[in-house]
Amino acid sequence: MNEYTTPSGERIVVGQVYRDARDVHVRTLRVDEISVDRYDHVRVTCTVIRQEDGSKVTEPMRPTTMAPSRLVSRAFQLLEEVK
User: How many whole angstroms from its chain centre is CA 39?
Assistant: First the structure.
């Protein structure tokens, strides 16, 4: 699945880039996959492409998975829309 629309009408698309909406331990995430798990729950798999912790900046390139509602919540900011 390349795209998912949440019940609240917010669209998540593979390739979008999000950022943690906090001041410390800030991650930048790229949406890589939208899938349905074995319990029929939609899951969004992202890659952490950048992590900032104070003056330390890394590019861990590790996966993280969450519910679509979490990604479109106030905990994250959409940085880059897919064109």
Answer: 21
Please name the residue that has the structure tokens 């330390």.
56
pLDDT tens, position by position, for the chain (83 residues)? Answer: 999 999 999 999 999 999 999 999 999 999 999 999 999 999 999 999 999 998 999 999 999 999 999 999 999 999 999 86
Measuring CA to CA, which residue among 65, 6, 57, 7 is closest to residue 31? 65
Task: Enter the pTM of the model.
Answer: 0.93
What sign for the dihedral angle of Cα 74, 80, 26, 65? Answer: positive
Query: Contact, 23 vs 33, CB < 8 A?
Result: no
DSSP secondary structure of 8-69: TS-EEETT-EEEESSSSSEEEEEEEEEEE-TTS-EEEEEEEEEEEETTEEE---EEEEE-HH
Q: Take residue 55 and report the two structure tokens written for it.
A: 């003056």
